[in-house]
Structure formats: C-alpha cells, structure tokens
Amino acid sequence: MKFFRKNTTLGAKLAISIAWISILVFVYVILSENLFPALGLILPKVPAWPFVKITSAFLAAFSCFWYFRGLKTAIIGSAIMMALAWVLEFIAGHFGLFGGTYIYSGTFPGLTIAGTPLMLGPQHFAYYFFMSYFISNLLVDSTLVSSAKSWWMRSLYVSFIASIIVAGVDMMADPTQVNVYHLWQWANPSAYYNIPYGNYLGYIVVYTIILFAYKFLELKLHAKPIGSMAISIAFVPLIMHFTRFIEYSSSGLGGIALVGCFTMLLPCILAFGKLIDFQKAAKA
C-alpha cells in the first residue's frame, strides 16, 4: 500500500492528496471537539469547526469518488445526490415523510432555505452515501467499486445493504444530534431517544433507491478508477466511519456507544478485514 505508486497521474495524485488532507482535518476536529474533551484533554480549537467538519468530510468523500469512479462521475453523482438529499430533507421536515415533521433549531452550520439547511446536502453525501457505498461493496462483493456483472440484481442487493449501514449510522447520529447538539427537534418524539421509528424505515427505503440509481449512473458514465486500487486512499471511507463512531460514542448520551458497537463498529471492522484482503489480492 502506497500513497503514490509509480506512473500515478497528476489527477490521481491530486485526488489522493485532497482526500488525505481532508480526512486528517476531519479527524482532528472530532478529536479536539469530542473525544479529547471527554478525556479531560484540550487541543487547539478549529475556527468555525461545524462548517469545517462537514466541508472536510465532503472533500474527502468527493476525492475518493474522483479517484475510484472518475472525475465526471464524481461531479455529476455528488451534485445529484446533494440536491436530492436536500429536497428529501425539506419534504420530510415539512410534510412528515417517514416519521413526522421536525424543525431545525438554527444552530446547524451554513445558510438555510425555507428552514432547511443547505449543508444537509454535503453532509448526506459524505456521512451516509459515501461511507455506505464503499462499505457495502466491501461486505457484499469484497471489492471497492461496483461490478458490471449482473449489475441490476447485484446492485439492488448491495444498495439494500448500504441502506442498512446508513440506518445504522443514523441510529447513533440522530439521537446525538437531537439530544446533545440540539440541531433539530421532532414534532412528535418517539421512544428511541425521541426519534420516530419511521425515520429509520425511511432511510432504508430512500437509500436503497438512491444507491441503486447511482450504480445505474456509474454504468451509463462508464465509471472507472483513475489509478491503482491497491493504495492508501482506499482506507479513507473506513477512517471516516470509525471517526464518526468515536464522535457519537464520546457524546455522553446514555447507551448510544453500545448501540453503535453493533450498528457502526461491527460493519467497520468487517469491512476493514475485507479491504486488507482486497489490497493483497490487488497487489498480487
């Protein structure tokens, strides 16, 4: 595993560099704002850290898609995904799709339109779509990217697994963001940390469709890597996934770390083992 392999193109080097710089910034924000304060340690704070956290996560995610799926696919796919995520959040929040209406508190970073933050688009792309894409491919097919073989049946299955991963992430994310960060509140709180159960059904349904549509887009755009598959950038999705587990586990919300051991940590460990095997096979 190397950062730059022989004959790596300038575009590939740029994608790798942005991905690693961005994920290191993201990890530092989580450590300085979440984990280390919980341990009684103080690190220098990052100015405007909520905005920096989402932006660095987005850049890391975009760069990984650029490297593994090509720049055209990364640009088109991320733009569609972010726009769709914002529209779905707007509809869900205002009209009660999958679990009831909710209202943002005004502490969410960035601008809002009709009460719905614009940064929800990059957040969904990085925190849900990006991580679930690579982890589901690793868990199901032991590879980093989609296969064109029997694409619709296999892609539908992988997309469903990705949606389960997304719901698992949200089982840690939403309780923390609602009860600790107070970013939004549900109009009709439910038993699971004041989160309606329909919210998680919604993630499974919506993200199965979204991931499947993206895989179809990849097929039409002839998506392919711009460099070697046996390379360090492949670990960026798992680093982000594990860092988010650390973030929410250190929030102090009772029982959420235990939930995350099953919904986030276990898939991350399994995917890491698959990635190690994939790297060895790719270098052979």
List keywords for this structure.
two-stranded antiparallel ribbon, 4% strand, single chain, mainly alpha, 68% helix, 8 helices, 284 residues, two-stranded antiparallel sheet
Task: Give an account of the 3D structure.
The chain has 284 residues and is mainly α. 68% of the residues lie in helices and 4% in strands. The protein has 8 helices and 4 strands; from the N terminus they run αααβββααβααα. The chain has helices at 10-38, 49-69, 71-95, 120-141, 151-179, 198-221, 236-249, 256-283, and strands at 102-104, 112-113, 116-117, 184-186. Strands 1-4 form a two-stranded antiparallel ribbon. The chain has a two-stranded antiparallel sheet with strand order 2-3. Helix 2 (49-69) crosses helix 3 (71-95), helix 3 packs antiparallel against helix 6 and helix 5 (151-179) packs parallel to helix 7 (236-249). The radius of gyration is 18 Å and the shape is globular. The mean pLDDT is 89.
Chain-wise SSE layout:
Layout: H1 10-38, H2 49-69, H3 71-95, E1 102-104, E2 112-113, E3 116-117, H4 120-141, H5 151-179, E4 184-186, H6 198-221, H7 236-249, H8 256-283
Helix pairs in contact: 1-2, 1-7, 2-3, 2-4, 3-4, 3-6, 4-5, 4-7, 4-8, 5-6, 5-7, 5-8, 7-8
Report the uncertain regions.
none
Continuous helix count: 8
Distance between the termini: 12 Å
Q: Give average pLDDT, whole number.
A: 89
The shape is globular
Summarize the structure.
With 284 residues, this protein is mostly helical. The chain is 68% helix and 4% strand.
